[in-house]
Amino acid sequence: MPAGLLRLVAFYAVVAVTCTAFSASFPAAAAMPTGVGTDTLRRSVNGTDVSDAFGQKGSKVCIAWGNSDSDSSLANFKTSHVVGLYDWSVDKPAAANALGFDYWPMLWGGDQAHIDAFESAVTQGFGTIILGFNEPNEVGQSNLDPNTAAALWKEYIEPKRSLGYKTCSPAVSAATNGQQWMRSFMQACSGCTIDYQCLHWYGLGASNLQAYLEEYHDTFNLPILLTEFADEDFSGANPPTLNDVIVFMQQSLAFFDNTGWMLAACPFDVARSTSGAGNPSALQNADGTPTELGSIVINDEY
Questions:
Q1: CB of 235 within 8 A of CB of 16?
Q2: How far apart are CA 283 and CA 251, in angstroms?
Q3: Alpha helices of 14-162 — where are they, by DSSP H?
Q4: pLDDT digits (tens, 9 = 90+) for 49-103
Q5: Extended strands (E) in the chain
Q6: Cα torsion angle, 200, 212, 63, 269, sign
Q7: Where are the alpha helices (DSSP H) in the chain?
């Protein structure tokens, strides 16, 4: 099942889950890039550079796309504030280039079907940043141990750098085992080149999200792409209201814009299927237009 659908099932079932790069090849954390706007973060040797707006204040929103690759409603979510686009796979939306998105292909997991699709699709110029495995620390997601993930990275992701791609680490969940998984992966991935830290977070309150991001940045000293996040209580004990999620999003957008090492944030998720009164975090209405929250996100309103 696609990662987006797995997360959707978890939301509607109200499953109780807890959601929480520097490797041997990196001589010191201080040697890793921490700012934005440098050639190291932005330019490729071959292939397609990331957009000039990438990582810049006012342009840090990205789209986690949960619709089909032919859904024309993607155009409703492109503004000057929105740069990146991904879909947990390599099913690049047909209009992505024409609309001006940076497309970020993902190697979701280590099974042969995902590997074959990734190898076939990810050619020079197809996208700009490769996203690593989806929540490898979770049994219900890509479920990879750090050593296996490192071996897969070296075989399939690292070689794509010669085609001009930047790379973002596997995206662990915010579960308590996430940071240790990432430490072990970085140690196992000796010789790997990782430009950005991918992360996921689900919980309550912008201050908690901020503390989570700061801890990861302090630990691994990499610029961050937050590729899934939402103000959610999967236990169902304290579900946020629409006002709660709006306040959360506005506070979060302000933090992203004013934090140099935060390069992009993709709220979960832009999908017609998540619309409805029962989901205050929905970003898209059933007719394809942005919800009130979705409009705040794509217009960077805080």
A1: yes
A2: 17
A3: 39-42, 96-99, 112-121, 146-152
A4: 899 999 999 999 999 999 999 999 999 999 999 999 999 999 999 999 999 999 9
A5: 61-64, 82-86, 102-103, 129-131, 166-168, 197-203, 224-231, 262-265
A6: positive
A7: 3-12, 39-42, 96-99, 112-121, 146-152, 178-188, 206-220, 242-257, 292-298
